[in-house]
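Please predict the structure of the following assembly.
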Amino acid sequence: MSLRARIIAVAVAVLWLGWFVVGSFYDDAARKATWWLPDGGLRLGLDLQGGVHIVIGPDLVVATEHELSAIQDGIERGLERDKVTGVRFTRTGQELRVQPASPPDAAAVRKVIEDDSRFTVREDGADLVLHLTPEWAGEVRERAMLQALEVLRRRIDDPQTGIPESVITRQGRDRILIEIPGVDRVPDIFRKTGFLEFKIVQDAAPSEELLRAKHKDGLPPGSEIAVEKDRATDRVITAYLVPIDADINGDFLTDAQVQFDNRVNEWQVTFTWSADGGQIFGELTEKNIGQPLAIILDDQVYSAPVIRDRISRQGQISGRFSSEEARDLAVVLRAGALPIPVQIEEERTIGPALGQDSIQRGIYASLVGFVLVVAFTIGYYRMSGGYASLALLVNLVMLVGLMALFEGTLTMPGIAGLVLTVGMAVDANVIIFERIREELRAGRTPRAAIAAGFQKALWTILDANITTLITALVLFEYGTGPIKGFAVTLSVGILTSVFAALVVTRILYDLHPGNKPVTELSI
Amino acid sequence: MPFEIIKPGTKIDFLGKWKIAAAVSIVVLLIGAIGIPLRGFRMGVDFKGGTEMQVRFTGEGAVDEGAIRKVLGDVGAQNASVVRVGESNEFLLKFEGERSLEGAAEPAPEAGAAPQAEAQPTGGEITAKTDRIIQLEAALAERVGALEVSRVEFVGPKVGAELRNDGLKAIGIACLLILIYIAFRFTPRYAPGAVVALVHDVLVTSAVWIVFGLEFDLRVLAALLAVLGYSLNDTIIVYDRIRENLALHTKSDLVDVLNRSVNETLSRTLLTSFTTLIAVLALLAFGGEVVRPFALAMVIGIVVGTYSSIYIASPTLLLLERWRTGAAARDAGKARAAKA
């Protein structure tokens, strides 16, 4: 390419990318509102703007356990139809064992348990042992993952939560990554499974021990103890004896809203049943007027009001909530329960103040690094050092501009990568300059020395940078979160610095003393 | 006159000192190895799992570290440590142990399937335990004073193990890819020297890290990988020159060619490292707490990498060549002996 074409190409690239650099100093709204700014720009990572990054792992083992329990239900229905009785079921982990009462029953049981693509049947004496097939277990886990994602997404998207900027993405096979900017703690809506149950209270006492003392011969079959705790002190207020099976659960809800009850000065959550739910709930409350009804969310009793009248479509939950707690509960109930329990496997939270502090320090460190490198380069190589410094500036504009163009995310390690790039970018120039000096000492004319210097340094520079690029790409592949940001700036920085050293510095040399031949070289 | 740190025609016998260089490196590595049982191979929360929390007490008056320790113990934090950050009432809390999530251990029967008494998954125990991190924050606010949480890093044991494995894998894969690239770009003869230098850099940097009792985490891993890629730059400059000189001076002794090459490229080896070093030093000095481990590991790595490209990479090449030609000569000798 002719010199003129090269200059025009570089100038256009620098101006265009520089436009994006300028745009990155404005936030998204300002960019969109201002006509002369690009719409896209650099995004700040959660570690710079402040926010929560959590990785949630649904307990997928539970999903397959649920599937086995559903299979068991099917078999039990079949046995009931065929009037086979006394069959025992035991489930250990991922195995369901069916024990017929007597050997003659075995054939009848075998008839009910038809072969199915969902599970395999192994005969162990008279017992039948069922396992999910690996394909079906995979299917079940996948379905649970998708359901969990869907529920969490609904919770995030709920207008009342006020975190619409959040991003939820699936990470690999069994993880969900949630990024929530602008908050400094994990919102409660991600902590709750959201499984709501209503159970008629059979007995109650101030503590679990006292309740057990009332039932010395053991709890009545099919019942369990659920406790209500003081929300501030976490102390048990009341222990209730309730049936294990819920009388009705949250699957039948259609809506939930927050409401302030003036009479008791309390926040409450009101809910609405579907038509089916209303019918079940109506019958339940009608039959049990005068009894307390325990409202249980995720195995914890929220309240146990006494039923005064038949309630069909609407009801309310009270539990000394703060307004935020009530709001979160309503969001969770509206979005539905997670199909399986979830656990936070990783959390990285940065408060907004620390993020702001990091930005300032990052900018300061970059500036100091830049000034020191430029001062040294000019001091050592004089005019050529000035060329290298100009190339370094072009390099930085292109690096930040490219990141902004592709709406990349800048993280604190990313800034570290930027500073590292400032130091490494000059390396290519040093290699060229040292080579030119050698050629000059060998007696070449400046013009020939420059040509030879660039030509002979080319592969050394490429080799050196390709190896660094390899490690940056490996880091991108294996790194997580902010560290990926480092890999990105480093990779892009390597590309732009090679370009700056080989193309931009060369243009400056070619430009240097007008079009006259170079007779003296300041290097 | 240009400004030059290394005068042209400098002839330092680097290759002759390979035994001293090797001894120095081995001693550092040995100190590092002794350091592991002595100081422990300390891993940060990223790799070990656990919680790291940075809190700032906003109230007036000095805050007592003992009070914080007491609260940590009461919420069941294991192996807790409390470190004051700077002069202010800011503290870094680190502890191990699970973080239990409300409702984590309970069954949620699948829609449509009526829960069965017998088939009910275990874990019906009532888990109203809230999140340990939130409990801790509430307890600190109540018993120590008003506070702001500026940073939380929690890594569960599963994720920690994964990050650890991925980290080791990343270093291994990076080394392998570089080996392949060097073998492809140069002749395979050069590759082992470069990789010995690389492994040397990573190990020596780690040894220094261990001796100073610093923690390994994702940031340090990123720095080690950057050092891997970067320290190779200098080695490549030298190897490029060796290849060039071997073609030019076919008659010369290999030691002379290597020495000449290292000397000729010495100024650029030092200069490139120096410019990068000043940028990274700026980062170390002004980048703040978050990038400090990264910057420090880079500084050490750059220094070690420069040393290794002068004193380790070329001598390894020399030794390998001698061993090869020696083996060839021995083979030739054997062949002659067999003939006779």
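Chain A has 13 helices and 20 strands. Chain A has a mean pLDDT of 87.
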